[in-house]
Write a structure and sequence with these properties.
The chain has 602 residues and is of the alpha/beta class. The protein has helices at residues 45-53, 86-92, 101-109, 123-135, 153-165, 177-183, 205-236, 238-242, 246-261, 322-329, 364-369, 385-391, 408-421, 438-450, 462-468, 488-495, 529-556, 561-564, 566-600; strands at 7-16, 19-29, 34-38, 60-65, 71-74, 141-145, 169-173, 186-191, 194-198, 282-293, 296-307, 311-315, 337-342, 348-351, 375-378, 381-384, 426-430, 454-458, 471-477, 480-485. Helix 2 runs parallel beside helix 4, helix 7 packs antiparallel against helix 9 (246-261) and helix 17 (529-556) runs antiparallel to helix 19 (566-600).
Length: 602
Amino acid sequence: MAAAPILALQDIRLTIGSTLLLEAAELSVTPGDKIALVGRNGSGKSTLLKIAAGEIEADAGKRFLQPGVTIRYLPQEPDLAGFATTLAYVEDGMEAGDDHYRATYLLNALGLGGAEDPARLSGGEARRAALARVLAPEPDIVLLDEPTNHLDLPAIEWLEEELKNLKSALVIISHDRRFLADLTRATVWLDRGVTRRLNKGFGAFEEWRDTVLEEEELARHKLDRQIVREEHWLTYGVTARRKRNVGRLERLAGLRQQRREQRRTTGEVKFSVSGADTSGRLVVEADRISKSFGGRAVVSEFSTRVIRGDRIGVIGANGAGKTTLIRMLTGELAPDSGRVRLGSNLELATLDQRRKSLDPTTTLKEALTAGGSDTLIINGQPKHVVGYMKDFLFTPEQARTAVEKLSGGERGRLALARALALPSNFLVLDEPTNDLDLETLDLLEEMLADYPGTVIVVSHDRDFLDRVATSVIVAEGNAVWNEYAGGYSDMVAQRGYGVMAPQVAPKAPRAARPAAPAAAPTTRQKLSFKQKHALETLPKEMARLEREIETLNARLADPNLYARDPAAFTKASKALDAAETALAKAEDEWLQLEVLREEIEG
């Protein structure tokens, strides 16, 4: 028998202004649930979470919270006003029987000492303090709205492990797909005011969502055809020539009403990059560059070559020097020693993490046009600013909206729209995924894959790096930076561990709970069973693929094959492409494992 819910929302309805935001939204949380709450930007996820937390009331519907159940809520923008220190802020959220040592432990693990003045905290530091306040009491239910925002990768990995060990039920809103996939066991999709639940974690969501949307489109098409048939009957049917069939007229009216009331999915962002002339093949060459500030080394004798078409990810803890490294690689900052050579014909476009280039007092239209005309030049063609706004899901009415009135997701889309409107063959993107919904992330990834130039991207989103990067540059500590082929997961396979930060300590013992596992070691002790098996089987697989490629090449060498059997020629060509791709992948995997084996064996 399924456990009874300790928190339940039923038939929640909420209208904001003239917009029906939530129509029939539901949420059920049982003890120990791990739920991902997903949906497009503006769909009402944060609002639904606030209703669940009791922060706001719905226009209609029921909220049930089992008596005695404790609940803690992390908003996107926590308010620390009125507290003398971060420790006082965290302890204020605890009860008399709670373990107050846990407040200090969590603050220290998140890089804070407890004595900080909340009024002087950065956005990231305030988010860390708010996380400690929410987690310290170990409540029955934890509601988290974008918990990874402003956190670096080491802190995200630490938080993931902490939440895995937490007995509380979790409801999480996040744009970090890897974070959601690793933590959740159920998914609630808020779409057009209505919720759907999948009793599987986020890893199964995207395939399920696509199936649901395809079924909706098929049903919509059937309804359209039914309306056409009814209209045809009314116009040309034998009975219609004698008299109108009132029942059939009512049926047609009902079908038309049903069609009008169907709420289609929100339009998609249409990313297009304003390209410049092709750059030279060599984009950047750095030879043993170093940089220090105030006697502290940030980069030490780092070398790399960036070739046209590369997608380079830059990974490191906050304060590791990612921005300094990129400024040197783009020629904005001179190294203390070493040499940076830039390629020819480079056109650079940048996106800064904090969106500082967006003046909050300007309007959306002025931000896109720099206060000039109503037209932008995109790929050499004039485009009206309103049309360009629509490509990024802004309405014409928002043209005169001040930037400061936009939501976090809207500001993120606006900053991307500005950066992509500039002619470029070299993109430098600092945390481009911040505040973007999952569908927009997909489109950004597709755009970067098709971009003909070169990309350097700073990101704490592991899944995004896996999908985009051809190599990653990682801060190893002590001003040392190394480059690894592939994305984040490839880097972990080669290093044997993820990104760790000095301030994230091993877990401390807790009251009434055994000690949690220590942080990941800095060296790998042995190959896993899966890796050993791959090392043994990959050579055989590579030999088989080589034989298959040889056979297919021999078949395609027949000059008469296409004329004789075009379908067979096409099939063999596709098989050859697939085999060559599989062989290259297998060779890369085997090489990485062989290097790792040699490192372990000394």
